[in-house]
Amino acid sequence: MSTMTGKDKKFTEVAQNKENDTTINTSNKTVFETKDLNLWYGEDHALKDINLKIPENQVTAIIGPSGCGKSTFIKTLNRMVEMVPIVKVSGSIAYRDKRIFDPRYRVEELRTQVGMVFQKPNPFPKSIYDNIAYGPRIHGIKNKKVLDQIVEKSLRGAAIWDEVKDRLNENAYGLSGGQQQRICIARCLAIEPDVILMDEPTSALDPISTLKVEELVQELKKDYSIIIVTHNMQQAARISDKTAFFLNGEVVEFSDTNELFSNPEDKRTEDYITGRFG
Amino acid sequence: MKHVDSTQVQNRMGTRLLINKLAKSIFFLSTIFGLIVLVILMYRVLSQGVEWIDWQFITGKLSTMAENAGVMGPLLGTFWLMLVVAPVTLILGVGTAIYLEEYAKKNRLQSLIQTNISNLAGVPSIVFGLLGLTVFVKGMNLGNIILAGGLTMSLLVLPIVVVASQEAIRAVPQYLREASYGMGATKWQTVKNVVMPASLPGILTGSILALSRAIGETAPLVVLGIPALIIPFPDNIFDKFTVMPLQIYYWTIDSALVDEYANLAAAAIVILLLLLFAMNSIAVIIRNKFQKRL
Amino acid sequence: MDKNINVRDMIHKNKQSMNIGRVWEKMVPKVLLSIAIISILTTIGILATLTVETIAFFREVPILDFFTGTKLKPLGANAEFGVLPLLTGTILSTIIAMFVAIPVGLMTAVYLSEYASDKVRRTLKPLLEVLAGIPTIVYGFFAYTFVTPILRTFIPGLDPTNILSPGLVMGIMIIPMVASLSEDAMSSVPSEMRQGAFALGATRLETTWRVVIPASISGIIASFVLAISRAIGETMIVTIASGSSKNFTFDITQSMQTMTAYIVEVTGGEAPAGSTLYYSLYAVAMTLFVFTLIMNLLAQYISRRFREEY
Fold first, then answer.
1. Among B176, B184, B197, whose Cβ lies nearest the Cβ of A109?
2. Contact criterion met (CB < 8 Å) for A191 and C7
3. Nearest CA in chain C to A154
């Protein structure tokens, strides 16, 4: 494995791959396909040879013990991982028919189509309305009537409209943690992404709020492809269609959720889901 | 055999505690020493000056006759000076801070700019005066007008605004930036719509403090060669001017000749301090009002 | 509600018309960099101004005469330009100021950091900041019209303008600076270290003296050095209260001139550009600048080199 430094080399690597790699799956059944994806934080090899195909309009759960690279993996899918300055990547990721590391494919465009919900609710210190309207506004939608419709539609989509419709102009920080997280989901829906990445979205929430978010995920998968990282195996079992088990930066097993939990192929998966470690 | 004689320890304990108590009193006295001086200074200035403050003094023109003198000219000069300093320092200071915190890579250029700013903060104000004299007054041939004074003052207080803005920008949590980038916002959109609004209170507080420093500074303007008696009121940035601290300076050194000038200086000091007090109060209000958020 | 709005399409359409934004996006870092460069240009401006005119000065007055000359007589036929009278004025006023600022400032820092309750500290610190926020011209007025007359009742031989009074007042002005920088250094000493001493039966004073001050000594010394730099560069107090006598003397009851006060006097007197007098301004300013720069760099070095690792 050759080591690469800096973005430029990373791109060259990808560009070279393009020549001899014709097996990209452009069918609309798969939203993401990773090929030999490796990632380093400095010297730390965080992702090792990841080869995954993430299906459309399904919920894909990523599980594994802390530090196994599951968060790093989904942050690579929308290139948020590059906010850490010492990151190096090799291999390729295709989002539908686009190679995401291709310099001609702008990262802003990728992130418009691949939305993200973070571990800790992170609304802006602005009104609820301005939080939801943020995405449409930065993408050039200024018409007040259109924005009103988008805000209502998104809040309904995140099942929080009834709770906040009378106080759209209040600061989002006045809401409870669970409500804040659904505001963040609504904010993400406002630009109608294709895929939604969720990085342990319920880890900071109480059980009732967690349940609401889980129900919401089930609802959303009709229109969106969802990839959710969770440290909670029951949650993965409840809400996902497919599950990938990560360990030490590798994918140990990736299959239908029912299959993985009832009949794991790998001994390590079995140990993990039966609670022998992690 | 015991190495520690407990009776001896007991005996010495009393003395040690007494010394500690004594020291505490001395430290406390030191602390309030400065405050006592502050009270004396305030009392002295008020008792000398307050009787001289009337409507005529505030709105009148300068005059060599003590009883006819008014400070409207220097007050307007201070006002016009701020009209130059405020926008210039805000643009330069916040721009530099955004560059250093959001755009600059951690390389030699970045650390050069950073070190340079902390060293500039330690350069005596009178040296900035010479810079202004050489570059703005003589080099650009502006003469000692408001614009030249304002630019000189702007460079002097620039480090204060840069450092305060940097701290405010650094205090914006990373997760807010992530939320913005996560929706496909560009860097500038994120800076403009997320980082700037969230750091605005800190930036404003720092800028007001920088402005009040500029209002109280005398030395750089003395160096620009502003004469002692400027009677016409300034009404644009290309006019000649004087400011409150400068007028206080001239009245103070001439008080050896005319006793009443000391009273005029004291009266002008009262007005200057009130002005500074008002500005600092605004800064504190802004800080308290917005601190609860986030 | 119109169910047919399609945000994806709208965003896609807007993408085409957002080229201006994209150009601006590329310009922003360059615009900001050029703004940031202005601070560097300021330094270059200061250095260039001072250097060019100082060199011109040394063409007319030998550098050795300048630094070893005890006579400063800038006007008249036989003008002499020795900087020593100004240097002694500056150094003496700084020493007097440090006699006030260092002990009082340090004891204030000890009180605030080690003895005062949270409530007391929260009341006292803003009040000290008020002291620091008063314009220097006000201190100059105070020294000249109040402190000097009082001192003269104790010291009969004191001149109406002298270096003692402004030195003392300058010291008072600098107290808050020493106090707040030293307090920052002391309060960053972890409380475990103090508890270790307390557990052995040490009093608060012994703990402060043996544990807290040694552990924060670099920050404390750096604060002293910065205070010295501040005193060297201070202008208005000495200009007003110490007069303009250019005598080479060490008698603090006499009028003396500092480097800063000399600059004020010469610029105020409209020295014709190109005259030796005019150039001497820059030579003195250069000396002043170098002195303060060395102090500032020294302070940075001390606090970086001897930073304690807790």
1. B184
2. yes
3. C7
Using a CB–CB cutoff of 8 Å, tell me whether B227 touches chain A: no
> Tell me, what DSSP letter sits at residue A164?
H
Using the Cβ of C6 and the Cβ atoms of chain A, whether some distance falls under 8 Å is answered with yes
**Residue (of C283, C263, C260) closest to C54 by Cα position:** C283
- Which of helix, strand or coil describes residue B11? helix
The structure tokens listed for C115 are: 């003895």
- pTM (predicted TM-score): 0.88
- What is the rounded CA–CA span in Å between residue C298 and residue B117? 16
Calpha distance A182→A209 (Å, rounded): 9
Chain A CB within 8 Å of residue C5 CB: yes
Distance CA B136, CA B154 (A): 12
Of A112, A139, A149, the CB nearest to C5: A149
- What residue type is C273 in one-letter code? A
Q: What angle do CA A244, A245, A248 make, to 5 degrees?
A: 130
Q: Any residues with CB less than 8 A from the CB of B78 and at least 6 apart, and which? A: B215, B243, B244, B275
What digits encode the pLDDT tens for the residues A74-111? 999 999 998 888 899 999 999 988 899 988 888 999 99
Mean pLDDT across B198-205: 92
CB nearest A112 (choices: C2, C6, C11): C11
Q: Do A109 and C2 touch (CB under 8 A)?
A: no
Cα C107 from Cα B216, distance rounded (Å): 28
Of B31, B120, B262, the CB nearest to C43: B120
Q: Which residues of A touch B200 (CB under 8 A)?
A: none
Among A188, A180, A172, residue whose Cα is nearest residue A212: A180
Q: List for chain B the helix, strand, coil content (%; round to 5).
A: 75, 0, 20
Cβ contacts of B157 within 8 Å, gap of 6 or more: B85, B89, B210, B211, B213, B214
**Burial of C125 (C-beta count, 10 Å sphere; 0-12/13-18/19+):** middle
Residues 6+ apart with CB under 8 A from B54: none
The domain segmentation of chain B, as residue ranges, is 6-52, 56-290
* C10 in contact with chain A, both atoms CB, cutoff 8 A: yes
- Alpha-carbon distance C233 to C238, whole Å? 10
CATH fold for domain B56-290: MetI-like fold (1.10.3720)
Residues 6+ apart with CB under 8 A from B291: B201
Phi-psi region of A61 (alpha: psi -120 to 50; beta: other; left: phi over 0): beta
Residues 6 or more apart whose Cβ sits within 8 Å of residue B231? B61, B62, B63, B73
So what's the architecture of C72-305 in CATH? Orthogonal Bundle (1.10)
pLDDT, mean of residues A26-45:
85
**Helix and strand element counts for chain C (H, E):** 15, 2
* Chains sharing 3 or more CB pairs under 8 A with chain B: A, C
Q: Model confidence over C266-287: pLDDT tens digits? A: 887 767 777 888 899 999 999 9
Q: Residue B221 in contact with residue B129, Cβ under 8 Å? A: yes
Chains that contact A by 3+ CB pairs under 8 Å? Answer: B, C
Overall residue count recorded for chain C in this entry: 310
Phi, psi of A191 (to 5 degrees): -100, 15
Nearest-angstrom CA–CA distance, C236 and C240: 6
Report the number of secondary-structure helices (H) and strands (E) in chain A.
11, 10
Measured in whole angstroms, the distance separating CA C52 from the mean position of its chain's CA atoms is 25
DSSP calls for B217-238: --HHHHHTT--S---SPP-STT
Q: Say what the pLDDT of residue C168 is.
A: 96
Chain C neighbors (3+ CB pairs < 8 Å):
A, B
> Can you read off the two tokens belonging to residue B290?
């917005």
Name the helix (H) or strand (E) containing A186: helix A177-189
Residue among A195, A226, A223, A266 at smallest CA distance from A62: A226
